[in-house]
Amino acid sequence: MAGALRRFNRKWLREYQWLRYSPHRNGGYCLPCVLFANSGSNAMGAFVVSPFVDFNKPGEKIRAHASTRYHQQALTGLDDFVKAMENPDQTVTSRMNDELIRIRAENTKKLTTIISHLHYLAKQGLPIRGHRDDSTASADNNRGNFIELLEHQAKVSNDTLMLKHISSCSKNARYTSKTVQNELLQLMADEIRGSIVKKVKKAGVFSILADEVTDLSNKEQLGVALRYVDDQGKLAEEFVEFIQVDKITGEVLSNELVKLLERLDLDINMLRGQSYDGAANMSSLRRGVAGRILNINDKAIYCHCSSHKLNLAIVRSCSIPIIRNTADSMGEVAIFFKSSPKRENMLCKVITETTGQRATKIKNVCRTRWIERHAAYNYFHQMYVPIVSTLEEISTSADYDVDSKTKANGMLRQITSSDFIISFIVLHHVMGILYPVSKQLQGRAMDVIVAHTMVEGVIQNFKTTTDAVFTKLFEKATSLGSEVGVEIRKPRISGRQVHRSNPPSASVEEHFRITVFRPFLDFIIQELTSRFSEPNPIICHLSTIIPPLTGITEDGDACSIESDWTIDTDALFNFYYDDLPMPTFLDAEAERWKAEWMGKRPASVQELYMVVICNFITRPHP
């Protein structure tokens, strides 16, 4: 109607529930389209982008908008939104999330199971893979410990999830391939190594231990361990890595150690000690690893491994001809039996019949596994009579070939000679004294106080050994010889003898005391003294911190400390100036330290450290 007033009619709001009025814009909007319409639609205009203000034939325009496709989609979106707000658990997205959560939980359980089995094998030092455990492996064959253990455990525990995973999961999603195994093992190693590094960093300063060795694949490997004092005051020694090297020169090995410390994010300037064997490529202060590390950090004191020095002393002492021949004969006997199951079974049979004990396999004299050397001597001493009986049986039995009988007869004559029996008893006695020292020197908690005290005690023991000790050893040798029908005799004395000792002697006992017992003791005392009497000067200065005592009472209590006890504070001040929290207080700390140990002595470096932690670090400086 011409001249009629056109404006927004409120009844439209009741008729079209999606319609909303904007007083500010004096027009109408479509609520669903404003919120949920596809913004890519070019047809949107009034009701969406701009207000509905054209009131000429408004009904037709409203119905036209309601019939558009994007309006219908917006209504659906609004409806879904309202339902999701009212029932959030029933939405498609929620259901998809629940499914994802379930799948994630299952995969986590599978991976945890795989990792736990791999960790078990690695912890026990068991081989993981078989000859063929990949996609070409047959289920009928042994596919290695890892796959077989995983499948066996799933069957025993009725783990349907893992059984289904192993049997039906796609090959690229099983997480059991050798590549994944190596990745998981590397992650475990990184985690362990990381925890060790954290402890080392917390300790502040540390030492490094390294030794190179050739593995079974004929590749040179450098084994590296770190040594530090933990927050409980205990000495810790942790292996960190094997490094494969192409050369074993001092330059190559030192560069590898420096790179390792960089990878571990350990500051080489905090290195306070390094310990290797005595080979020139490791110990040389010019071109060896020790010297090159010292050029980088002059506080990284080099110490030759005490256990290795003891081993060298033993090996060198056993180079005396009569002792060397005895050790070689023992090795030949061990190889003779070990190289033939038939001969070894015969020895076990004789041991069981003779001793009534369960037979154990003969042990060879090992040059590198030092504890095994002592075990071999002890075994040979216990089984000497059965060994002699077995060699006698083999040398005369028709069940063995000529070569075996010839070798058995030759070994029988060697180990039943007077020289062998005496030398072996002496060697067994000396090794019995050195056994606890050798064993303890390989301990992780070994420190310079205990090591020095033990070796010093052994040297003093050998120096004070009297002839009465050899008399008892000679009686043991005589008794052992009588058990196999051998009388101990001294060899014939000739006018000119260059291949063995030929001194004049009044008796058989005196002859062997002069030619075997005393030379062997003198040689081993000389070796131990020379190898353990040249400590680093800084170590000498540090040793002045250890309280010296005037003696021990009859009750075993420590006497008072020596009145002239002096700590080399000047040398320690100059060398460890950067390490001291308050260098100017060092002299005062030394006086307090001497007062702290009045009348007592620490048992180890650990006790010293704990006293420092409890009584000095926690107390204010004077």
DSSP strand count: 8
Biggest sheet strand order reads: 6-5-4-7-8
Computed structural class: alpha/beta
Globular, elongated, flat, extended or rod-shaped: what is the shape?
A: elongated
Helix content: 55-70%
Report the β-strand fraction as a percent range.
Answer: 5-15%
Mean of residue pLDDT values: 82
Q: What count of helical segments does DSSP give?
A: 25
Radius of gyration: 42 Å
Unreliable spans are: 1-5, 550-560, 618-622
Strand count, sense and closure of the main sheet?
5 strands, mixed
Distance between the termini: 108 Å
Protein architecture, described:
The protein is an alpha/beta fold. It is built from 25 helices and 8 strands. The strands form 2 sheets. A 5-stranded mixed beta sheet has the order 6-5-4-7-8. β4 and β5 (220-229) form a beta hairpin. α6 (145-156) packs across α7 and α18 runs parallel beside α21. The termini are far apart. The model is unreliable at 1-5, 550-560 and 618-622 (pLDDT under 50).
